[in-house]
Write a structure and sequence with these properties.
single chain, 171 residues, mainly alpha, elongated
């Protein structure tokens, strides 16, 4: 404990002039929360995708929120131990987001269109497409949103990882 308080505490490295690690951490937390929230529609979609696919945005979002929280804690009260946790959690969030990115791309490419559709009069008057096609469109939209959130998380996690790793190297 006395060795931590003896010298200047390591802070996150500022990569470039307009890079604010605190704002990046807040955006990371928000991207993770959005992914966690989008896991509930993934659970209730009954389509050809695996039923456990909802766990992907749930775990990825949790990793991203944890990494953003570690970064925020490291900014508020800097210490070498928190900086090491920041590096580890950001790298874990980065790997999780890259894995999720690949799996979302795979699930988007494997969506199958339903061939058989029986229209009843109730559906024919209201819509011109089958309800299953609307569900496929909803799944596609939610997956594309999760994909975009993952791209943002990958960029922010990589910037925060490099920033924390440079701070560890200099101290």
């Amino acid at each position: 404990m006395s060795s931590e308080g003896a010298g200047p505490q390591p802070r996150l490295h500022v990569l470039f002039a307009r890079f604010d690690p605190e704002a990046a951490a807040v955006v990371c937390i928000l991207l993770g929360v959005f992914q966690i929230l989008y896991s509930s529609p993934m659970y209730y979609m009954d389509i050809s995708q695996p039923k456990k696919l909802f766990l992907l945005p749930l775990t990825t979002g949790t990793l991203i929120v944890a990494a953003g929280s570690f970064t925020m804690a490291c900014i508020r009260s800097p210490s070498r131990r928190l900086l090491q946790g920041c590096v580890c959690s950001n790298l874990a969030g980065l790997l999780g987001a890259l894995l999720a990115f690949c799996l979302y791309c795979l699930s988007l490419s494997s969506i199958e269109q339903q061939q058989d559709c029986v229209f009843s009069m109730a559906y024919h008057d209201f819509i011109s497409r089958c309800p299953g096609e609307h569900l496929m469109d909803l799944f596609w939209c939610v997956t594309v949103l999760l994909l975009l959130y993952d791209v943002g998380a990958v960029v922010l996690q990589s910037l925060l990882s490099v920033s924390a790793f440079k701070a560890l190297k200099t101290n």
